[in-house]
Amino acid sequence: MRTEQPTPLADVRETAAATAVAHPNIALIKYWGKSDEKLFLPRTDSLSMTLSVFPTATRVRLAPDAEQDTVVFNGLPATGEAERRIVAFLDLVRERAGRPVRAVVDTENTVPTGAGLASSASGFAALAVAASAAYGLGLDARGLSRLARRGSGSASRSIFGGFAVWHAGTPDAGPEEADARSYAEPVDAAGLDPALVVAVVNAGPKEVSSRTAMRRTMDTSPLYEPWAESSKADLADMRAALKRADLEAVGEIAERNALGMHATMLAARPAVRYMSPASLTVIDSVLQLRRDGVPAYVTMDAGPNVKVLCRRVDTDRVASVVREAAAGGSVHVAVPGPGARLLDEGV
Ligand code: 2P0
C-alpha cells in the first residue's frame, strides 16, 4: 500500500507573503505618556480619527534561507532606529508564531516621516496586519490592535477606520492581563461629517522624538498629572459630543486637550516645544475663522504641523485660509478613512 506523504507544512508556510495597507490617525484626545514602556501601555485613554490620506503599504515575505531580516523603506534599506524597531516587532511576531524564520519587509510610506503626522501609526498598523498574515497568527481586529500597539502606541488605533478609542486598560494588573486589556475599538460617530485640513509647515524630521518627549514630560513636568486627570473628563465629554454629532463641541474638546498636552511639554525640564512661529500663524488664522463664524478647531501632535478640524462643507474655505497662513507649506484635506486591511496573501 502506498502511504501518502504529507506536504511539508514548513515549505508551504515559509514562502508566505502578505501585503497590507493602513492610514494614519490623528488623536482628538491625545496619547501622551506610557505606564509601561516595554508593553506600550498608555497612561491615559485616547481617541482618534483615521485619515483618508497618506496610506502606508507594507509587504512581508518570509525568507527561509535568510539569516537576518531585510527592511526596505521607500525603496531604500532601513537603518538605525527605524530598522531596529521593525526587527524587534518581527521578533515579537515570531515568538508568538513559534516560527524563527526571517522576513523581507518592504514599506511604501506616503506620510512625511517624523513630522508629527503619525507615520508610525500607519506603518506599524500595516506591518501588524501583513506580518500576522504572513506568519499565520490568525488575529482578529482586537488582536491586531494589541499587536500594532507593541510597535507604536498610536498604531493600535489605525487598525480601525473612522473614529477609534484606545483603552489604557489595567496597567496595574500583571503584564499578561495589562497587555490583553489595552486595545483600540471603533467609536460610532454617525451624523458627524468632519474634515481635517492638515497644514504641513515643516516636513523635516523632528528634533525630539515623541517617545523621548513623552518620557521627559511624565518624569519632569508638574503639569503632566493634572493634564492626564483632565483628559479623562475630556474623553467622556468627547464621547458624548460624538454621539450627538456636535462638531463644535468635538472641536473645542480636541483643541483644549491638544493645547493642554503641549502645555505639559512646555513645562517639562528641559522644555519640549514643537510649536513654531509658522504653527502659531496657522493657529491664529483658525481663531480668525471662528470669529468669522466658521467652526474650525486646531490640534497638534509631536511636531510643528497643524491639523484643523472642520465641517466637510467648510473644507474649501478653511483650506484656503490655512493655505495662505501656512505660506510655503503644503495643505492636505482628509476625511474619515478606512481601517487597515490585507491587500493580498499568497506565496
Ligand atoms: C497621539 N502622539 O495620540 C499622540 C499625540 C503624538 C502626540 O501617538 O512611543 O509614535 O511609538 O508609542 O505612537 C505619537 O506617539 O509613540 C503619538 P510610541 P507614537 O497621536
Question: Could you describe the 3D structure shown?
Answer:
There is one protein chain. The chain is α+β, with helices and mostly antiparallel strands. It folds into 2 domains: 184 residues, Ribosomal Protein S5, domain 2; 141 residues, Alpha-Beta Plaits. The protein has a 6-stranded mixed β-sheet. A 4-stranded antiparallel β-sheet has the order 2-5-10-11. A 4-stranded antiparallel β-sheet has the order 13-14-12-15. Helix 2 runs parallel beside helix 3, helix 8 runs antiparallel to helix 9 and helix 10 packs antiparallel against helix 11. The longest helix is centred in the C-terminal third of the chain and has 20 residues.
- CATH domain class of the largest domain: Alpha Beta
Mean pLDDT: 93
Name the poorly predicted regions. Answer: 6-14
* SS element count, helices: 11
Order of helices and strands: HEEEEEEEEHEHHHEHEEHHHHEEHEE
Which small-molecule ligands are present, each listed once? ligand 2P0
Gap between N and C termini: 33 Å
Beta-strand proportion: 15-25%
Could you say what the CATH topology of the largest domain is called? Ribosomal Protein S5, domain 2
Largest sheet entry: 6 strands, mixed
Physical arrangement of strands within the biggest beta sheet: 8-7-9-6-1-16
> What general form does the structure show?
globular
Q: Determine the structural class based on helices, strands and strand pairing.
A: alpha+beta
CATH architecture of the largest domain: 2-Layer Sandwich
Radius of gyration: 21 Å
How many independent structural domains?
2
How many DSSP E strands?
A: 16
Portion of residues in helices? 25-40%
